[in-house]
Amino acid sequence: MCGIVGYVGNKEALPILLEGLKRLEYRGYDSAGVAFIPSGGKIGVERAVGKVAELEKKIAGMQDSGFVGIGHTRWATHGIPKEENAHPHRDCKNNIAVVHNGIIENYQELKNALCARGHVFRSETDTEVIAHLLEEESASLPLEDRLARVAPKLIGTYGLAVLDARSPEKIVAMRLGSPLVLGLKDDEYFIASDPAAFISHTRDVLYLDDREIVALTPQGIQIFEGGVQKKKEVQTLEWDVMKIEKQGFPHFMLKEIHEQPKVIEDVLRGRIDSKEGLAHLGGLRDVEKKLREAKRLIIVGCGSAFYAGSIGKYMLEEYAGIAVDCELASEFRYRNPVFNEGTIVLAVSQSGETADTLAAVHEAKHKGILTLGMVNVVGSTIARETDAGIYTHAGPEIGVASTKAFVSQVAAFALLTLFLGRQRNMTSVMGRHIIDELAALPEKIRIILSQQKDIEKIARKYADVKNFLYIGRKYNAPIALEAALKMKEVSYIHAEGYPAGEMKHGPIALLDSSFPVIAFAPQDSVYEKMKSAIAEIKARQAPVLVITTEGNTEFSQGVDDVIFVPKTIEMLEPISNIIPLQLLAYFIAVAKGLDPDQPRNLAKAVTVE
Ligand code: F6R
Question: What pTM, to 2 d.p., does this model score?
Fold first, then answer.
């Protein structure tokens, strides 16, 4: 989704802004722009539709761009992707430039009133109203005070940064529901919607909270809330620039698929006690007693995070004996969910910024419910706003389609199952068994990854199909949905995921010889059921690709393709079974000449509703 980067310091701003915008490319966008203040003191703005490289061409060779600037990657919400709609947006007199993430819901009303007062708009965006509203405030006031006066007029969500040619050494920024983080390095200061934008310069960061306004100058930063200056603590990020580079892989998606053995190791590190069969989750320590007494858990999330939660539900019910619901955050927020005593809400989110998931957290908090987060991005809004939580430690995920973050969430659910299970009825023997199986996963994933060439061949065979059906049962039912989501996201092939038991209730009508089915059939408690489903599919002449347990010879005939995965316990099958399907989706996208890292229309963090 939209990205913001800003810089003040002692270096030429434009190259730093461009580098920052490139590092934000992964979030998904359709146009980009920068505003800067050269020594002449007039604001310069350059914008381009398409990749940041297009913007770069426009500003190539530009000198003396000054030492302060803001940049933006836009993901269209109001108005099609065209240069006039790209940010930054200016006021009538070209004194002010604004970049904005989020949505101003009352922009039309504000725009009508501004037009009636003589303002002339140059874009169809909601953002432009902010520049014009700032224009109406007295220029004798500091820019941060003007922004504080404008903010109450805006309904919606925003992370925004502003330049004013009349205070040429300053950036002012503010957030409400859309992330902003400051980077600090000696006498250089950065502002961005994601620290990836400045991570090559500094790892010292400071996260802004809602309604805080910050003024950045080469002399330092000042943070205000309600007109009062406040101090905040600087944090040091653990990850570095290496983690957000491709390191020899052709795409981030492939790199991140290959990182998964390490991701499992990182999720488990320091958290398992093999002797006692226990999980230690430091982030839950303060709420341990409440968790012991919890009667019901409601997991909320979107997309892949929702599917990870659905797998978590199966695990927690089977091994921890706690009632669990898993809900799409986008629906949960508008229902009137019933919270009984002892209900806990757990929000699952890679980015920690997904608007719907955050809204579900707010709803639960409003009703006085204990909220937990299962989040990847340290310091993100959901991580900070929930009462306690578990970090998934997948490291920065750059590919828009989630791979390693999803797997880290499923592994974190296994840890949570151990944690809650051992608080309840799970024996230490069972705890140790799960831990042994978890610890063996990285090696098993490496074995699956070593079949990459074979999977690539299968991918080439299916690259031209128009549809896929994915089926699985029990733990593999949500995996069928997740695998189908991966396929549609990166290859644009229509792919449906279904619990296999539902096939006869409708989707079997779709099948013919041109409609391949991918069936998860490991040798587990529902294996025989899956075999019957596969037989029914074959009877309709649909091509079948089966994912089954290593050493199983039962599919040596009668199906079209087989991918073998090492045996693990049923609750961990989703982790091993999704890996070949991530690879399949990736290689089909590549075979079709698509960019799997930045699928069309998609954004990495969905910070608007
Ligand atoms: C799918 C995908 C999305 C996200 C969803 C939630 O590959 O990436 O479906 O899982 O947008 O995002 P987070 O986890 O950041 O809340």
Answer: 0.84
Residue whose token pair is 């919400």: 77
pLDDT digits (tens, 9 = 90+) for 553-592: 999 999 999 999 999 999 999 999 999 999 999 999 999 9
Atom of ligand 1 lying closest to residue 489 CA: 7
Residue 2 annotated to the active site: yes
> Among 2, 111, 170, 474, which one carries the catalytic annotation?
2
Cα 231 to ligand 1 centre (Å): 33
Catalytic residue among 444, 474, 486, 604: 604
Rounded to a whole number, what is the distance in angstroms from the first to the last CA of the chain? Answer: 12
Q: Where in the chain is the domain with CATH 3.60.20.10?
A: 3-240
Read off the pLDDT of residues 104-157 as tens digits, 9 standing for 90 and up. Answer: 999 999 999 999 999 999 999 999 999 999 999 999 999 999 999 999 999 998
The domain covering 3-240 belongs, at the CATH homologous superfamily level, to Aminohydrolase, N-terminal nucleophile (Ntn) domain (3.60.20.10)
* Ligand 1 atom closest to Cα of residue 357: 16
C-beta atoms surrounding 121 within 10 Å: 16
Backbone angles phi, psi at 542, to 5 degrees: -75, 140
What is the C-alpha to C-alpha distance for residues 118 and 259, in angstroms, rounded to an integer?
56
Nearest atom in ligand 1 to 354's CA = 16
Query: Could you tell me the distance, in angstroms and rounded to a whole number, from the CA of residue 149 to the centre of ligand 1?
Result: 35
